[in-house]
Amino acid sequence: TTGANTGVSWADAYRGTDSLARALAAAVNGDEVWVAAGTYKPTAALTRAVAFNLRSGVQVYGGFIGTETARDQRNSTSNITVLSGDLAGNDPVITDNSFHVVNGNGANATAILDGFTITAGNANGATASDQDKGGGLIFLNGSNASVRNCRIVSNRSTFGGGGTYIRQSSPNFQACTWQSNIGGAFGGAIDMFDTCSPSFVRCAFVSNSAARAGGVEVFGGCNPNFTNCVFRQNSGGASGGGALFVSTSSIATLRGCTIARNTTSASGSAILNDVSQVRLFNSIVYLNTGVGGSTVNQLAGGATVVYSCVQGGFAGTGNISTNPLFIDAVNGNLRLAAGSPCIDAGRNSDIGGGVTTDFDGNPRRVDDAMTADSGVGPAPVVDIGAFEFQPPPPACEADWNMDTVLNSQDFFDFIGDLFEGDADFNADMTTNSQDFFDFVAAFFAGCD
């Protein structure tokens, strides 16, 4: 734009590499900052200690073109908005990159960062100033900000938390991906320490690495919750914990998660538990490899595991060990194929409060008519893993028994399921009289 450079409208938007930093400095409680697609840096200078500072009461959204009049008109998937620590624009030289790209220190839950790619942070500075932690984002001193729809990619640190470092803070993450971050000693994607309770919903941790905890390190009385998350192809190095390492009186709770194809040259190719608690519900642990490519002892150090699928078997109520039948694990597609033993095999009471969607944002409880329920709870019964199997719609909506023929047997089968409480025809998560009326209308409408 060529306007007044005041940020009060698109025509007068802040301009330049450091325009977002100036907008954040000017924002006050209650403001939203809308950011058009492009690449932004914390400073126009080469001062590595400067970061984008989140602020309580200020919401920051990326993914705009620069003509929108409403926030929901943006598309952060197609309008890529990058926060970069490559201050000199000379990567792969990273010795002059920002220590942290985003600093959430002290920002409470009213601070929101939504719709950005956060990259090129290099936390290789002094330990005393925490400049060796959290190359992408750092949260200290009661930072409880909300981060949504963000990709934290190709950041690094020398101590821990290549992508993100958390201490005495409990930020909330939703629909975020950590990929190809390097954590030095601890936590390729994330390192958390000292009484923190962050939450992760529909998040992915992919191809991150560190000497210990390729994905996430949980240390010092931290209690994170992971819901409908994916841990894939992380490497825990010689100190173990391919996907997660949990230690020193911490409690890590995972619900509806998939942990697959992570590696370590030590123990705990999926999770290494060291004098702490690990709890898995409705989750898959499969194809994680340790020394010599072995899939034995993927969960090392003990865990409480129920209604989950664990390769080689694991003691606990409702657990199975049968191949979950991923669609294409080698190429990263960990969704369930038709016929998977994980379909309709979880326990509804362990889904988690308020959870209605899976990793992909699809409905979380969907019945597969071709699979007998082996889990627990009123139908539809939840699937095991981060992805709910979405049966293809029948060619004819009223073909209830899916035999490709619409006849009286479909009507009788539907009535039988209706009386058993398993006839949610309109997919509103309940079986009631409206399902009957909707089915009858579709039945008499016939098929094309």
Question: How would you portray this structure in words?
Answer:
- The protein has helices at 19-26, 408-419, 433-445, and strands at residues 32-36, 38-40, 52-53, 59-64, 81-84, 102-103, 112-114, 117-119, 122-123, 137-140, 146-148, 151-153, 156-157, 164-167, 172-174, 177-179, 190-193, 199-201, 204-206, 216-219, 225-227, 230-232, 244-247, 251-255, 258-260, 271-274, 277-281, 284-286, 299-300, 304-306, 309-310, 326-328, 333-336.
- Strands 1-4-7-11-15-18-21-24-27-30 form a 10-stranded parallel β-sheet, with helices on one face. A 10-stranded parallel β-sheet has the order 2-5-8-12-16-19-22-25-28-31, with helices on one face. It has a 9-stranded parallel β-sheet with strand order 3-6-10-14-17-20-23-26-29.
- It is mostly beta strands and 448 residues long.
Give me a quick take on this structure.
With 448 residues, the protein is mostly beta strands. The chain is built from three helices and 33 strands.
How far apart the termini lie comes to: 54 Å
Low-confidence stretches: none
Spatial order of strands in the largest sheet: 1-4-7-11-15-18-21-24-27-30
- Taking all Cα atoms into account, the compactness measure Rg is 24 Å
Overall pLDDT metric: 96
Derived from helix and strand composition plus strand pairing, the structural class reads: mainly beta
Q: What fraction strand?
A: 15-25%
* Count of runs of 4 or more consecutive helical residues: 3
Shape: globular
Percent of residues in helical segments?
A: under 10%
E-strand count: 33
Major sheet details: 10 strands, parallel
